Structure formats: C-alpha cells, structure tokens
Amino acid sequence: MADTNESSAPTDHHNEVAAEAHVNEENSRPGGHRHIRSFVLRQGHLSVAQKRAVDALMPRYGIPYQPGQLALDSAFGRNAPKILEIGFGMGGATAEIAQAHPETDYLALEVHTPGVGNLLKLIDEQALNNIRIIQHDAVEVLRDMIADGSLDGVHIFFPDPWHKARHNKRRLIQGPFIAKLVQKLKPGGYIHAATDWQDYAEQMLAVLSAEPQLQNTAADYAPRPAYRPLTKFEQRGIKLGHGVWDLVFKRCGAGK
Predict the structure, then answer these.
(1) Which CATH architecture has domain 4-251?
(2) Per-position pLDDT tens, the chain of length 256
(3) Where are the alpha helices (DSSP H) in the chain?
(4) Could you tell me if 109 and 134 are in contact, meaning their C-beta atoms sit under 8 angstroms apart?
(5) 196 catalytic, yes or no?
(6) Which residue out of 12, 105, 137, 160 is catalytically annotated?
C-alpha cells in the first residue's frame, strides 16, 4: 500500500493544478494552429518512491506521445472495452476503478509527474495490468493518437475549475473539445464528468447538452455511478455540505 503521505493526497485533478500561475496563453501545434492549455505545468514534489516508480515502471506501463494512431488492443495486449481517463491526479480513483473492473482497459492521461509516479506505484502494488499511461496534453493525444469510434467511455473527474472569470476560457469542457471527443466514442459510448464547482457543473451541462451527438442519461445531473469511488477530498466536502455534480452522456447511434 502507498504510504500515508501519498495515499492521503486528493485524487481529484483540480487539486493538482494551480489556477494562479504564470502560463503561456497558447501552445503551438502542427499546422500553425494553437490551443489554449487547460493546465499549468508545475514541477511539484516528486517523492523518492514516485521517482523510482517512474524510472522502473514507465517503460512497461507508459506509452510515449507521438503523432499517429495508437493501436489500443496492441497497447494492452487484448481485445477489451477501452476507457479514456483525462487528468487522473494522484491516480487513487483510477487504480480503484481498474482493480474493480479487470475486464476493462483504462488509458490514463496526466501531465504531472508526481501523479504519474503515484499511479505507477499503485499499479505495481496492486498488480494491475489494465492501465496504460500517457504523460502528455490530452488535447494533443486525442487529436493525434486516438482513432475515431475506438472508445467505450471517457472519464473526466474533477478537472481544474479555473474558477476566476478571466480564466474560464481555460476550462477543458468546451464545445469544440467535446465535439472532437464525441468522434472518438463508439455509438453508445459515454462521457462521464464530475465536478465540485457548481458554475462549472452548469457549464458542463450546457456544453454536453448542446452537442447533438450526445444524449443525457438523466434529466440533468446524474446520481454518482457506483464505479466512481468517493475521494477523501470529496468526502470531506460532502460532510461540510459542499455539492458534487456528476454528468453522464452517451453518444447517440448514427443518424442523430
């Protein structure tokens, strides 16, 4: 098991990414186009155990970013449902979900090395073989590596809320991003997002509802699916009366 200091770290991604930081407004991409990044790259504290895990295990469980479609079945060594997780923070929830669902493969994306190292530790400790990690910007991975119609689901749990109005443009859940994400889903595949910021929840609901290829599985916000574990951070918030909002949308069949 992870030691106390590391295992007690919140697994939600927005706790890992500081909204208050000096950042480059845009990131260059092929063809001269640019996109605004939804994260801030910080060095963070990398523990000895996390560094050891990165050095020893990333060659086995990591997939380098490179332009060109990724053969998902080859990456995992089997034909199984594939779930993309965007921004796994410290990886606790990812490992818990993967352990509970060995029949499903999870492609986990995160840019921050301490989180990558922590998830690799958990993979090793729990002997998980159904997780692969790409340490790179999710927008570029989605654009360059994920084939259309290849995913059974997408998890986006507690993305950075960029709560100040002037930073809202950095939020990950925006119409153009969701339109691209939907293309990667199989018909019937789902997008599950969760946040503890009400105004971001409202934005998520509006953006997802506006995508014509998606259908809400609930009237508005969904009950938390049993497969998504409560993080310690979330449990503390609930005890204090803070809200948490889950949204689960499915891709419609061809023709809608």
Answers:
(1) 3-Layer(aba) Sandwich (3.40)
(2) 333 333 333 334 443 333 333 333 333 344 444 555 544 555 568 899 999 999 999 999 999 999 999 999 999 999 999 999 999 999 999 999 999 999 999 999 999 999 999 999 999 999 999 999 999 999 999 999 999 999 999 999 999 998 777 757 889 999 999 999 999 999 999 999 999 999 999 999 999 999 999 999 999 999 999 999 998 878 888 888 889 999 999 999 854 4
(3) 4-7, 48-61, 72-76, 92-100, 113-126, 138-145, 175-184, 198-210, 232-239
(4) yes
(5) no
(6) 160
For tokens 């480059």, the residue is 24
Residue ranges of domains in the chain: 4-251
Three-state SS at 108: strand
Which amino acid belongs to residue 167? Answer: H
**N residues, the chain:** 256
For residue 8, what is the DSSP state?
T
